[in-house]
Amino acid sequence: MLAQAKRGPRDWLEWPFFEPRHRALVERLDAFIASLEVDAINHNDVDGSCRRLVREMGRAGLLEAAVAPADSDASAIDSRSACLARETFAWRDGLADFAFAMQGLGSGAIAIAGSPELRAAVLPKTRAGEWLAAFALSETEAGSDAAAMACSALLDGDSYAIDGEKTWISNGGIADVYTLFARTGEAPGARGVSAFVVFPDDPGFSVVERIEVIAPHPLATLRLENCRVPIGRRLGPPGGGFKIAMQTLDIFRASVAAAALGLARRALDESLEHARARRMFGGALVDLQLTQAALGDMATEIDAAALLTYRAAWRRDVQKLSTTREAAMAKMTATESAQRVIDRAVQMFGGRGVRRGEVVESLYREVRALRIYEGATEVQKLIVARELLKSH
Ligand code: COS
Q1: Residue pLDDT, tens place only, 31-84
Q2: What residues contact 385, with CB distance under 8 A and at least 6 apart?
Q3: Which of 180, 243, 389, 391, when mutated, tests ligand 1's pocket best, judged by the most ligand atoms within 8 Å of its CB?
Q4: Closest residue (by CA) to atom 7 of ligand 1?
Q5: CA of 191, closest atom in ligand 1
């Protein structure tokens, strides 16, 4: 749980990527995080905190920035709004960002490829914060190499029988709805995967392990044993699941970059406050040129990451163009640079920087997973290179 701190100026909201409605959204987001009770986010109760946060975000209408309405497709998700929300939530607390983000990632495939019935059943509840959503793609042997998944779904009459395990599933164990990817065997590799909507009370569905990580988030391993899912809960055509997964990731990858930005901006705000207050060598820490060099690097890395992030979001929203390359560039740059920014903040805080309960200590733990999840940095480099080779 992180207490409120003073925010730096947000003149970047005047960049040409944004419209007046985005600045209005940021005001609503600010009011929301300021209104959260100090103990609303409890890292010792991640399940309860996520449920509460999602319910409150839903009531405040903020999940509209992550989840499409039932009568529209994924183009209704405004990437700039999703990014601004993740930035603002991450600045306040990594778990708040996580809770918001999962509503989008967990329901994105349904917005992209769900039947009208599935959209009507899932999207309004997810958008209102009544249901928690999850995205079940990864397996022990299929993380970065997502097409290597082994979990299978065999058509048997009017339902699929799903067998296998999914792991590192965010919201695993607490989600009310899962978008799950399994091998249906139309072809080897990526072309033989389909997407499904699975509910935790489907027979044969179980949570086998809750996973603890360095920054507390609800994560689990799921098991599917002859889990029966009606054919109508398949998303898109048989064998079309891998593309749906990639399209979902394309939409939300820029928002991971935005979350990293939120964490980095918080680190910079904390560092400035600390460097001015901390007495050292007869003056203040901020008087030292090495401190100023660190602050200069931090601010520059943040702006560079922000430009890539909002370029990707703007390109999708306004130009309506593919952002596979731009989102990958933004994700790898913003997450890697946020790690460096936060590390400098910890260094500036000295011993306090590694003390449990300090804001920068918490940021240091929070930022690490962002370089791994939704496609590790190494995968983003591959994606950028492939897109480059396609277009040159
Ligand atoms: N949008 C739409 N379709 C896409 C796509 C995208 N962004 N990326 C790939 N595809 C399509 C390809 O066009 C190809 O379709 P065809 O067979 O019809 O040509 C198919 O998907 C397979 O693509 P490719 O051959 O590039 O797949 P690879 O197995 O080589 O995988 C990477 C490519 C590495 C990019 C992919 O596995 C990936 O993104 N991995 C990271 C997964 C991830 O983020 N995991 C984290 C889990 S969520 S926390």
Answers
A1: 999 998 877 899 999 999 999 999 999 999 999 999 999 999 999 999 999 999
A2: none
A3: 243
A4: 246
A5: 17
Distance from C-alpha of 309 to C-alpha of 254, rounded to nearest angstrom: 6
Amino acid letter, 148: A
Taken in order of first residue, the domains within the chain and their CATH numbers are 11-132 (1.10.540.10), 134-242 (2.40.110.10), 249-391 (1.20.140.10)
Q: What tens digit of pLDDT does each residue of 140-179 get? A: 999 999 999 999 999 999 999 999 999 999 999 999 999 9
Say how far apart CA 339 and CA 209 lie, in whole Å.
29
Q: How many angstroms does the Cα of residue 242 sit away from the middle of ligand 1?
A: 7
Q: What are the structure tokens assigned to 208, written together?
A: 């086998």
Neighbours of 374 (CB within 10 A): 22
Of the candidates 339, 260, 306, the residue with the CA atom closest to the CA atom of residue 89: 260
**Amino acid identity of 48?**
G
The catalytic residue positions are 374
Residue with tokens 């406050």: 273
